[in-house]
What does this fold into?
Amino acid sequence: MASGGHMHNLTTLIKRLEAATSRLEDMAMTLDEPHASTIAGTPTTPLPVATVTPKLTPPPPATPPPAQIPPQIQDFDELIKEDVQKFVDLGQKIGGLVAEQSKAVLQAFQAERTYLFVSTKAKKPDPQPVELVTDLHKASDSINNIRESNRPSPLFNHLSAVAEGIVALGWFFEGKPAEFVTEIIGGIQYYGNKVLKEYKDKDQTHVEYIQAYYQNFKSLSAYLKKHYPKGLTWNDESGVDAQVALKEIKSGAPAGASTGLPPPPPPPVPALNVPGGGGGPPPPPPPPPPPLVTSPAPAPGTAAPDMGAVFDQLNQGEQITSGLRKVDKSEMTHKNPGLRAGSTVGSPRARSPAPSKKPKPESMRTRKPPRKELEGSKWLVENFEGSEDIIEISAQQNHSILISRCNKSIVKVNGKANAIAIDNCTGLSIIVESLVSSLDVIKSPKFAVQVDGTVPTILLDQVDGATVYLGLQSLNTEIFTSKCSAVNITLPPKEGTDDDTKECPVPEQIKSYIKDGVLVNEIVEHSG
It folds into this structure.
């Protein structure tokens, strides 16, 4: 009977082991990884428990930041923001047709900005799609239609000056765009100077409006010299199709959105930490926080500041001011003028002088060679320094002359030219026979001009010390000055008399006062 009982217990134990083995096999099959833990040891050995690290979800790929706007587009945006917008604002003050036309000018510059942006992203198209210049043509047509439809308007000279100048925005088909734009300015001045003459004593807003329009194209010419001195450039190396680039720009798509490059691969997912598997060990726990850094012991003989006491006071909150003494009214400087006289409160602190910038030694300066050339219909005279010989120019009626960086030199213009522009010249003297348009002088101290024939307009801007010698044929010349000092006009003696030449200083002082709620400005003239 005892042996039968032992057999019964052995059979029961075997069945229990088979059931446990079956359950462990089912658990192993449910694991995701193929290398589930294996069963080891004898039935009496405790089985290891599998530890599964949760699967990490990779972060979504970061959206690449939009590429920066090219520098040439940034500079063109600045031109629109500063110069073109000022012109538009002045046009809005005048109102009517002038305001409407000035808005069209802004649209034309914005269309040109889009065209330039396309050229930085696209290869040069051949032939060029019409869509690239559609907006620019619409704005130009609007400007010309306003002019042609309103010829009887008293502001026809305004409308004509703007219509003549907008042609300059077609510079991207020229080999030397800066010179092309400068030549267009001469056509603008034919009508613009009429506006200056008509409104110089009537309404200064009209004068500023025309001068702002001049400045638009002067700034455009400087912009082209910087970015496109030899004509428009395209992105032929890595550019896309021009129409594709145009759609991207108009739709506001971020730069580089259509590069066709696949997104960067996500970071690798760490393997599950399963005993017996091929993954690495679990990441170590984060290190414990660093211990608080204590201040080093003060050196012998020096008293260390008690920072603990400082923090104790700061932790008092609102109670920190409980120990302050209330100031009596007799001690307040803002209520006692006598105290203010000797008080140093509010006195400006003495500032140390800024370090002076030392000029470069003469040996390190590079000087460009002098140049006098006729390019197309424009004379370029520059970089003459202390020339003892007279620089002579034989000009024709369609020639414009640009003189820059010529110091202590004499220039003589023979014949009748269109216009002359002088910039950054010191001690320059010029002899002019006749001009169709105007003589513009900017930032040229100690300047002198002698007019033998007729010059309609002389514009002086930021000139310190200038003498204008007029002849009998040039007494109708109009002279405009801005930010100038020490300007003298020398008049010839009357014909048939023995009188001496007469020197007339240009007034520099303005008297302003209020009359009937209106600001009145008068020139202060000095006699004697």
